[in-house]
Design brief:
This is Haloacid dehalogenase superfamily enzyme, subfamily IA. InterPro entries: HAD-like_sf, HAD-SF_hydro_IA, HAD_sf, PGP-like_dom2, Pyrimidine_5'-ntase_YjjG. It comes from Halosimplex carlsbadense 2-9-1. Pfam families: Hydrolase. The protein has 2 domains: 133 residues, Rossmann fold (3-Layer(aba) Sandwich), CATH 3.40.50.1000; 71 residues. The chain has 9 helices and 7 strands; from the N terminus they run ββααααβαβαβαβαβα. The strands form 2 sheets. Strands 5-4-1-6-7 form a 5-stranded parallel beta sheet, with helices on both faces. It has a two-stranded antiparallel ribbon with strand order 2-3. α1 packs across α4, α3 packs across α4 and α4 packs parallel to α6. The protein is globular. The chain starts with a strand and ends with a helix. Magnesium ion (MG) binds next to loops. Magnesium ion binds next to loops.
Amino acid sequence: MAAIFFDVDGTLVRWRGDYGDVLADAFERAAGGSRGEWLEHYDDQFFHHFGAFADDPYHQAFADVCDEHDLDCDPGDLAEALVAAEFDAVEPVPGVAATVEALAERHTLGILTNGLPDVQFGKVAEIGLLDRFDARVASHDPEIEATKPDREIYEAAKSRVDADRYVMVGDDREPDIDGAREHGFETVHVDATAADLSAPDFRTLSVLL
Ligand SMILES: [Mg+2]
């Protein structure tokens, strides 16, 4: 039996539009308007707090934006609005539901994602597939606090499932392919943005056989 772990963003789900529109939607919902400079500042602050494993990087980044730009609104409302906007904006990557259903019949499936557990697993719930994933591993789980491609997060994933083979499926080269391979996973690269058919490379092919 194999344990097959999936990345979330760009692998199981994708945005219907641009992420900037999702963020603007959150500001519209909770602050009554949105400006480019707020979005840019939010992005910078989010990655800063996310990288530092802050308790709630959404909330903290919005607090910074409200301070800096004198916004009279509650960072907690903005954070809640952004998560709601994200959930509204996700759609399944085409073909993913049938593949997940088929693989779940013969293997143990898992999620292995960089992000906040509630948000990342919530996005998979939005597309109706969360129940198929028995092992759920997110970088910002306080018990993990490591992001792909760091060793600790792959080790955490392997410790959750006893399997003969571990497979990582993902769209991003360094975290999903190079890092996973270095830490004992076979890998399958997917490209949710490919406009045309593309053939898997030979390593992908060998995993599928
Ligand atoms: Mg991804």
